[in-house]
Fold each of these.
Amino acid sequence: MSAVKIIGAGMAGCEAAWAVAEAGIPVMLYEMKPQKYSPAHHSPDFAELVCSNSLKASRIDSAAGLLKEEMRRLGSLLVPCAEACAVEAGGALAVDRDQFSRLVTEKIRSHPNITVVNQEISEIPEGDVIIATGPLTSDALHAPIAELTGQSLYFYDAAAPIVTGESVSMDKAFYASRYGKGTADYLNCPMTKEEYLAFYDALIHAESAQLHDFEKETLRVYEGCMPVEVLAKRGEDAIRYGMMKPVGLTDPHTGKRPYAVLQLRKENREGTLWNLVGFQTNLKWGEQKRVFSMIPGLEHAEFVRYGVMHRNSFLDSPKLLDKTYALRKEPRIRFAGQMTGVEGYMESAGSGILAGRNTVRAIQGEAPLILPPETMFGALTAYITDPYQENLQPMGANMGILPMLDQKFRGKDGKQKKYQAYADRALAALDACITAN
């Protein structure tokens, strides 16, 4: 039996290799470390955590906790390894990063069906392949991927926050078109002069996140994706004449034209998620919550994804990948990890599980494993591979991508009950899917 070639021994690559190897199929796992390191990597071990050592919340009634429970039920390698290397972190699952990477490396290297090859790959191998080279894919492999897909990996330098639609206060926001053209597809948050000036002052004095040294030079030239806080510092009216200009808008609550307006655009077809148009930012996450919540209508906004600015290569997955993470035009090749448009350690790892399991099913002539949209991974996969999705921004696990519940939950514990209901529905759907497959 021919071996499945998996490129990259990060979180996604390790999960993919484990899923394939556990099915009794040989794996050739290619990893360029320690011969060559990306600017962000330093350890020769696999599944290196380059930023935080936190894998987020453990509670089942949280998006991150639900995600990990789904991974456990799908046969994850990394979840039990993380639990074995856990350090105290309140309600989160945090790990001793060195111990975690060593344990994963030992598990992978000792598996009888996995052969590790320490080599940089510069062309895509023949046969069944899973590419999981992460957001800093080497230049040597970047070129053949660009040739294969017909486009370069996107250069992801800045992205705007995303909030849930149900958390926007409609007693202040209103629907209208963009600049008075087309249909009323945008949510508008109007501001008086006093509200704008208070917001503006908070924005220009907010604290920014630090970039890696290798990102600073690369990102400096991207004028078109300038962070909103940087543009604002050019003058009091810079953003009011830019992304916040109120041209063609009348606030139905007052009958007047706003002094400034923030517009939100649908992030998914269901309208459960909304993007803050033009608000790409490099502010710290806590600062984003504080400052953007000053905008009328967003006082109680639930941020499912904060704005980010960093170097990151990813595919235009809605046009290229199907729900098994296979390349539509050449399904022997699958992608996994952050380069598919999922964001976060465990989201990347989980995509590796699904890419691995579907590679196995394809080799064995079985129907693909498509997780129900009620599951966190099913919803996340549907989001990044939706062919109607335009201008994909990488997405992590959040309750906002799940189909809405029929039941309404009210009261001070309503949100917790709602999230528990989402989790119960997701795990029931996943168990039924696993049983059926």
Amino acid sequence: MAVHLLKLCVGVDSVARLAEFQAARLERLRAAGERPVLCHVTRHMPRRAAELREGGSLYWVVRGFIAVRQRLLDCEARTNAEGRPSCALVLDPELVRVAPRACRPFQGWRYLDARKAPPDAESGPAGTEDLPEEMAAELRTLGLL
């Protein structure tokens, strides 16, 4: 059975900003003549990499809520600029919104059992599609969305 990773999206205040950041990264790779592959580099290779490759996703925590996921395509062993081992989590560029769930801060990543992962989001109540991310988060906190 697949397992997922849960990671804080540090320095990003909305799913839209994450999408912009990742699109810009892919564009820089294209402009440099490199393969446009979206990777998130971490210090350590996940011990459960084989399970992650079986359909796992990286769930991003944005402003205190598990908000979006990206399918994990691979976990590649790499060496960083200092010559130390690292891991590149190869991600599908598609961001899939999930039903928001509050999440406390933590360091690094956490494994997320597939049974406990939030489901993909369905469209919200009518008229909420264009709400600013910050307002939607506040309304969710208050239990109004």
Amino acid sequence: MSDGRAARSFASLAIGETVARGLAFVALLVVARRLGPAMYGVIGVASGVMLYLNQVADGGIELSGVPAIARLRDGIQGLVSAALTVRVTIALALTLVVAVSGVFLLEQPDGAILALYSLGLVFVATSTRWVFLGMQQSGWVAAARVLGDLTALAIVVLAVHDVGDVAMVPIAAVLALALSAIVMFAGLSRLGIKPAVTLRWDQSRALFARSPHLVGFTLLGLVLFNADLIYLRVISGQAAAGYYAAAYTFIAFAANLSVTWAHSVMPSLARLERHDASRDEAYASAMLLAVLVSLPVAVGGMITSAPLIQLVFGSDYLPAVAALAWLLPAIPIAAAREIAIVGLIGSVGGERQLIRINAMCAAFNVAILIPVVPRFGMIGAAAVTVATEAVRLAIALRYASQHGYALPSPRRVVRPVAAAGIMAAGLVFLGERPLFVLVAAGGLLYLVGLVITGVVRVGVGDARRIVV
């Protein structure tokens, strides 16, 4: 990509997000092993519900704020202050409603766990991640995420030992959010931005004008993200939800990295004009790089899903193997789709099309889930998820093309697919081996495939490069 700042911003953000997601993954692993599938299912469903509530507390600013800050030259402090004031007000009211409902109205222990998680909504509202990403100053975001997730991991390791300690899981999550918010506020001060409480609604009205569409888009996206888990919990019980949540942990990890990459690209796309040829190249290169990295993860993971589940979650979670194998193709599909999505976010009127994408796909997803899950269980839920992701990608690409974003040529896409095929054939030939051997062999085979197909050109000096 031609924008050096975008590359540097992504590098720091990607490293921080990868480390943070790794810490969060280890924390989930500890929780899963110490609480067992049934209680892990309760945590998974409560966390899934919180994703919806977090988006309401965010007010769509995590999406609309990045291109707005990227374009803004003056008045950033006033905009940030006004936006945070509105968000915190919404979050406090939402926390009260959720906490009371969780304790007095919902089934237990699910309700109590949800009530504890809801205490973190105010820290979601005070997050200033969108400001740093818009300014392409992602170092503070990375540091905040790492410190927060490291704190959560420490609390989980020290305080969660059996099902009686389940309340410490949401408490750890809330404390992690609080620490992350504090660190990012410190970063804003270093940049000369000092947010304050303000009633100047006019300063953030334009930002929130896009919120209903963007919040609706995100909420519908979450239906696509975890309706399968929630419905499976209702139909098949806590244990099935726990197995599926374990399988989906890998998918969520990869999906979050895809979103991170896409958001780091967003400022560059927002700054470039529609008819600028460099915008098409930035868009195509970002999409191809996303596929290039995610494709071997999906293909290799499908082949090694059994030893992967055994190593990470233990033998109690072996029923999750089939679900993981069926879910993994969603990773490269979602990675490509996220680039089209941020292109629409940065385009005038794109938020309305985002709503249409997720509304159509949510209806498609739910209509298929309802009859499929009772009959096919976890595998049915996973297959529906992948099918829905494919439909979302097709529609997102179509809408992005209406805003002038040209698709990468098929030839550029086929080459990494062929490299992944070489890797898959080699792994099948190797058969059953220790997981670390298969991972190392898969990485080497994929690299060889990239060289053979011309994606990676080996030479000396400037001749050694990746061609996407």
Amino acid sequence: MTEIVNVIGAGLAGCEAAWQLAQAGINVRLYEMKPEKYSPAHKYSGFAELVCSNSLKAARIESAAGLLKYEMEMLGSLTVPCAKENSVEAGGALAVDREKFSDSVTEKIRNHPLIEVVYGEVKELPAGKCIIATGPLTSDGMADIIKELCGEGLSFYDAAAPIVTYESLNKERVFFASRYDRGEADYVNCPMEKDEYLAFYEALTGAERVQLKDFETHPFSVYEGCMPIEELARRGVDTMRFGPMKPVGITDARTGRRPYAVVQLRRENREGTLFNLVGFQTNLKFGEQKRVFSMIPGLENAEFMRYGVMHRNTFINSPQLLNSDFSMRERPDIWFAGQITGVEGYMESAASGIIAGISAARKIKGLEPIKLPIDTMTGALSAYVSDPYNTGKFQPMGANMGILPDIGVRIKDKKEKYGVYAQRAVESLKKEMERVGYEGNS
């Protein structure tokens, strides 16, 4: 194919879109502003950089996240196999060594003969077909382009959790275990007694935060899926104990009983030298993070390799603008992909890139489009993002079983029920792929 498709942004969505196009025999020009310019949250020069967490959520197909990844592999995903190749122990979840994962994706993209990588910030929309996958931290230049295409966007604040070294943990206070003993004992657990928890709560709610630059013009709106721990604490003294610090399913190895609260740490790299504080996204000042988080049992002398950060994210009003294949209704030669569309989560973003890439490739080749069934996770997310009825109160949405149509049969056991959902989804997607003769661009 002589036509070139421009893909703007080499994050998860952009890389998946570029891969689908190139594997379909279409030339791709992939634009990436790193390493010439970085967003406030990005630090690594490689593609598909993970910012907030290194977890890609549950691996089992009976879960929403696991089903999504399974469907993505059926459709020829690039990132899911790369994630599996660079996984770290995380119980029943798929978590990765961030840098090795990024390096793996970057190598495959750079070495593809049909993908040309162009470095530098895009300030004018390239001529021809485009897939815009610049992410929620899109540059000022691209933001102006998107605003011209879409009008005013929506926005919210997002946060990342701190990372500490395993060597610096107090091994006498912490122990390895997975909640409910699922999978291997991969998480470091920091148990808290009631007095320790209350002291931590008081320190956390009184700690000093970083003042965001645009507070004066934008309200402090935080997306629930990445709520800063200090904001969660302000909702009530026990809120954290029903969230990231819930002790359910954990037995303190020292006492033989369930702790009052627990902080879990998850591997950040395969070697197990770095761990991140699960659910501890934060906007506290760095000095305050050191002071307050060092109150957590086991973290008294913790060495922080990265402090938590907070940044403003933006997403477009997709139900008003996009079709279910992520193409624009008014500009069908332009597709959007990634979190900027309002899908929430790493793999959800990557999945939208797959869909946009497949859509663009089949349109160029004159092939019948794939119509993702509504009872698949990819199809349900696509439908949610493009549903005109969501225009007024549109909020980001991640993979969850609640967006799938009911199976019409009452099954009490949740795992069994979700297994039926998963089986139905896999069969539906397979049938649609067979109908249009698509085998997946793996």
